[in-house]
Amino acid sequence: MDFDPIKLELYKNILTSVSEEMGVTLQRTSFSPNIKERLDFSCAVFDGSGQMIAQAAHIPVHLGSMPLSVLAAIEKTKMKRGDMIILNDPYQGGTHLPDITLVSPVYGDEDDEPYFYVANRAHHADVGGMTPGSMPLATSVIQEGIRIPPINLFHNGELDTDIWDLILANVRTPAERKGDLEAQIAANRIGERRLIEIVEKYGISEVQTYMYELCSYSNRMVRSVLREIPDGKYEFSDYLDNDGITDKQIEIKVSIEINDDTAIVDFTGSSPQVKGSVNAIYAITLSAVFYSFRCIVDVNIPSNSGCIEPIEVIAPEGTVVNAIFPSAVAGGNVETSQRIVDVLFGALAKACPERVPAASSGSMNNITVGGSDVVRGIEFTYYETIGGGMGARPDRDGIDAIHTHMTNTMNTPIEAIETSYPLQIEEYSIRRGTGGSGKYRGGDGIVRSFRLLIDAEVTILSERREINPYGLQEGEAGECGKNTLIRNGEEHPLAGKVTISGQEGDIIKIETPGGGGYGLSVKPNEER
Predict the structure, then answer these.
(1) Which of 111, 200, 359, 384 has its CA at a distance of 20 to 30 angstroms from the CA of residue 134?
(2) Which of 361, 520, 522 is nearest to 435 (CA)?
């Protein structure tokens, strides 16, 4: 059937609204501050073959990798009407263990094959493992928490209580995990219901046609931008500080070859996978490529599987950008993903400098705190990512104190932290002067200081503590971040990746990196 451009826009908005309503449901019914306050979750709609059709504006590192989760659920289970699949195993469709994904098929009344799928992914503040918060300095994924391959959480509409009990028995905070998982279930149910309502109103043939056309449209728009970029090969490399186990820097190298309306993105030459947890699985690398190329398309197109079709991604197995089992991967999701974006933007800056910003803070600045809250009589796990400075853009300054690139979360409000956890926030401020100078300045980072009100275990997983966020076009680099333990009034520097046994009264101070500057500054030392 011929398609109507006006209806195409209508379907783009209708299907996006389904993802958004799933997200609202998940937020409002969740238990943990990490989900209801920080919004560390993502929701999307997929066609009957598992291609992503629509997503809400949630977390890029989730969304670009979720199609592989849906495909894993399709391939490894025999989904039927009323089923729901749960998974988190990075080597079987997941990304890192705290991110738990639920996938549901959507059937019509009489059909034997699903019309669509809906899925959501949420970061759980604890899934077991070596340390509270499940972001340990591990050397194997087995140390990072409970691994859930794609399995049925629901059979024919009925909860598998054995699977449910097994998961909750392997986490430190089962009541909170139970509430968050129930919120994820509710989100998928609302997505299923809304898609059936759309089919009842417009008919399955029309809905499926416009799903296909939405992907086709996105594909054409990405190709049109690639045609505007001069053919050629553009290379860039950058480094992770270390893996938290050794002090060795870790190279991520990319070559982007543009040929008319296609691109080959090749990570050959990147470092081999490492002992520590900064290994990224292929889905994370694919997600970073999806995000980076979507960013250079300046038209309002749907973000769906069509965006990645013109791009071939080569990531050699056994490297830090395509790790194999049993490599630890908790940090690959949150830290290495950011550096992959940095190298992609560094290469694209040579191809289309007018479309690409300087390096942003380049770290999610992860902190987890956990232990026994004697006042409430429960175990607690607190997880937070802290923003930094955005890289300056070709025509304006970078934004201060913001999450960029592969993360899109909010900060946890101070009131929520102090109400929910035995923590007190001593400082929360902009780290002035940390953005790189230039014609346009990089954004400044953040200072966030936590006082422990009880003894607790603290893990920090951060980057850009040794290697600065780069500037572009002679702009200056942003300032590195730093971590500090203040105990009995004395300051003790902490590594970028560290676990400590915190004592009551300790202050953990996180100072995040600034973004790089763009262009040569007439007055390099000028204060903003």
Answers:
(1) 359
(2) 361
Where on the phi/psi map is residue 4: left (φ > 0), alpha (ψ -120 to 50), or beta?
beta
Distances (CA, A) of 499 to 99, 133, 370, 378: 21, 11, 11, 22
- The tokens describing 2, both together, are 């011929």
Q: Please report the pLDDT score of residue 408 as a whole number.
A: 84
DSSP 281: -
Q: What is the end-to-end Cα distance of the chain in Å, rounded?
A: 57
Bridge-partner residues for 485, per DSSP? 492, 508
Residues 281-301 have pLDDT tens digits of: 999 999 999 999 999 997 788
Instruction: Give the integer Cα–Cα distance in Å for 103 and 137.
Output: 30
C-beta separation of 284 from 344 below 8 A: no
For residue 490, the cross-strand partners are: 487
Enumerate the domain spans of the chain. 5-216, 357-528
Distance between CA 115 and CA 95 in Å, rounded?
26
- Alpha helix (H) residue ranges in 385-505: 414-420
Q: What is the DSSP string of 113-134?
A: S-SEEEEEEEE-S---SSSTTS
In sequence order, what are the residues at sequence separation of 6 or more whose Cβ sits closer than 8 angstroms to the Cβ of residue 391? Answer: 357, 358, 359, 360, 398, 404, 442, 443, 469, 471, 472, 478, 515, 516, 518
Instruction: Look at phi and psi of residue 492 and say left if phi exceeds 0, alpha if psi is from -120 to 50, else beta.
Output: beta
CB-based contacts of 230: which residues, under 8 Å, 6+ apart?
258, 351
- Laid out side by side, the sheet with 151-155 consists of 52-55, 41-47, 116-123, 99-106, 84-87, 151-155, 158-159
Nearest to 241 by CA among 464, 479, 471, 499: 464
* One-letter identity of residue 284: I
Instruction: Confirm if 339 and 463 have CB atoms less than 8 A apart.
Output: yes
CB burial of residue 237 (10 Å; 0-12, 13-18, 19+): middle
d(CA 384, CA 367): 5
With residues binned 3-state (H G I as helix, E B as strand, rest as coil), the percentages for the chain, rounded to 5, are 30, 25, 45
Task: Return all residues near 490 (Cβ < 8 A) that are at least 6 apart.
Answer: none
What is the Cα 337 distance to its own chain's centre?
Answer: 8
Label residue 128 left, alpha or beta by phi (over 0 means left) and psi (-120 to 50 means alpha): left
Q: Mind listing the pLDDT tens digit for each residue in 72-90? A: 999 999 899 999 999 999 9
